[in-house]
Design a protein that fits this description.
By secondary structure, the protein is mainly β. It has two helices and eleven strands, in the order αβββββββββββα. The protein has a single domain, classed as PCu(A)C copper chaperone (Immunoglobulin-like).
Length: 160
């Protein structure tokens, strides 16, 4: 007897797989995973987030980021005397065995001067240059900000 999955189940599985972040990137002990970006109503700016893990036995450093058709800069959020501001980060050291999460309210990639707005369903491609892992390509699916926060919360074990 042959069993088939109902069409609705197949569609749900297809959608669930399609919504997952694009495959992780790894080279030289540096692993990039869980990449996501936010949709932008205008081409002025957007943000991208991901995890960096250094499984090598030596430190590495994220030296620069780039995005085709725009600018990409690593930033962090700082609070000083009750005021929150973004600060450009020149480089990011990743100790052996360390994992750094780029997320809202902390380290993140600012995407500016984009050639076109990022729309939900798009994938933005970033290049990340590391000291010893060379250049890694990061593919981040574009979500609304609320979808992104919900995804990050579920990955971190928190209820949205």
């Amino acid at each position: 007897m042959t069993r088939t999955l109902p069409l609705a189940v197949l569609m749900a599985l297809t959608i669930a797989c399609a919504e997952r972040p694009v495959a992780d990137t790894e080279h030289g002990g540096i692993e990039i995973s869980a990449a996501l970006a936010t949709a932008s109503p205008t081409a002025q700016s957007s943000a991208a987030y991901f995890r960096i893990r250094n499984s090598a036995d030596r430190p590495d450093t994220l030296l620069a980021l780039s995005v085709r058709g725009g600018r990409a800069q690593l930033h962090t959020v700082e609070v000083h005397e009750g005021r929150t501001s973004m600060q450009h980060v020149e480089h990011l050291a990743i100790a052996p065995g360390a994992e750094i999460r780029l997320a809202p309210g902390g380290y993140h990639v600012m995407l500016t001067e984009l050639a076109a707005p990022l729309a939900v369903g798009d994938t933005v491609e970033l290049s990340a240059i590391f000291t010893s892992a060379d250049t890694l390509t990061i593919r981040a699916p574009v979500l609304t900000y609320s979808q992104l926060v919900e995804r990050l919360d579920s990955e971190n074990g928190r209820d949205p």
